[in-house]
Amino acid sequence: MKPEANGKVLLRGHGITRRWGGLVAVDKVSIELERGSVHAVIGTNGAGKSTLINILSGEIPPSGGRVELLGEDVTRWTQPKRARAGLGRSYQRNTIYPSFSVFENCRLAAQAAVQKPWAWWRDARRCDASVGAAREAAAKAGLDALLERPAGALSHGQKRQLEIAMCLATAPEVLLLDEPLAGMGAEETERMLTLLAELRADHAILLVEHDMDAVFRIADRITVMVNGCVIASDGPEAIRSNPQVQAAYLGH
Known about the structure:
Elements lengths: L8 E12 L2 E12 L2 E6 L6 H9 L6 E6 L2 E2 L5 H7 L1 E4 L11 H12 L14 H13 L15 H13 L5 E5 L7 H15 L3 E5 L3 H7 L2 E6 L2 E6 L1 H5 L2 H8 L2
Parallel strand pairs: 3-8, 3-9, 6-7, 7-8
Antiparallel strand pairs: 1-2, 1-4, 4-5, 9-10
Helix pairs in contact: 3-4, 3-5, 4-5, 5-6
C-alpha cells in the first residue's frame, strides 16, 4: 500500500518550454513533485521526457518558464548548484566509475557534495563526513555487502542501484530518475521497486520510465507527454482509463 504524501512541494516547474530552432521539444509543461510521492512521467520516444528532466536538473536551460527547488527560483542555477541545494539525478546510461569500488564511488559523490578546498592537505579518504555518508547511502541502496567490489563487476541491476546510492550520498531531497529500470530482469526490477518504495517517504521522486507495469505499481501520480505537451496528469487509475491516453500511448 502506498503511503499518503505529506503534500509539501519540493520541486516545481511552471510553464517549462524548450525550443531547438523551430522544434518545440517541451511546450509549457508544469509539474510538481511532493515529498512522500513518486511522480512518473511517461510517453513515447521523442515526447520530451528526457528534455524535461534535463531542464529540471539544470543540465540545459529552458527557453521559457521557471523552475523552483525548495521554494526558491533556481531557473538560472547551474546543475552543480542545484545538486548542492538538494537535487539528485540519475541517467539512462550508467555514470559510475567502473574501476573504483562501490564504496569509493559513493564516497566521491559525497565528497563532491561537501567540498573542502581549504583542507587540500588532508587525505579525502579520511573525511568522516563523506565516509559516513557513503556507507549510509550504500546501505540504503542495498549495497552494504558489496562495498569493496569493483563497480564494473556489479550486475546491471546493481549498477543502477549504485547510481542511486551515489545520488543519496549527496543528501538530496529530490530524486530525478531517468529510466532506472531499463534493461532489468524481473528480479532486479522487484529489487529496484522495493528501493524506490523505501525512498519515497523522505524524498520527492520523479520517475521517467517505459515499464508500464512498474509505473502503475509504484507511481502516486502520472503525467503523460505527447509531442512535448502534457495530455493528462492524474492518479494511476484515472490515467489507465483516460481515453486520450489510451489512444495516444497505452493502446486500447
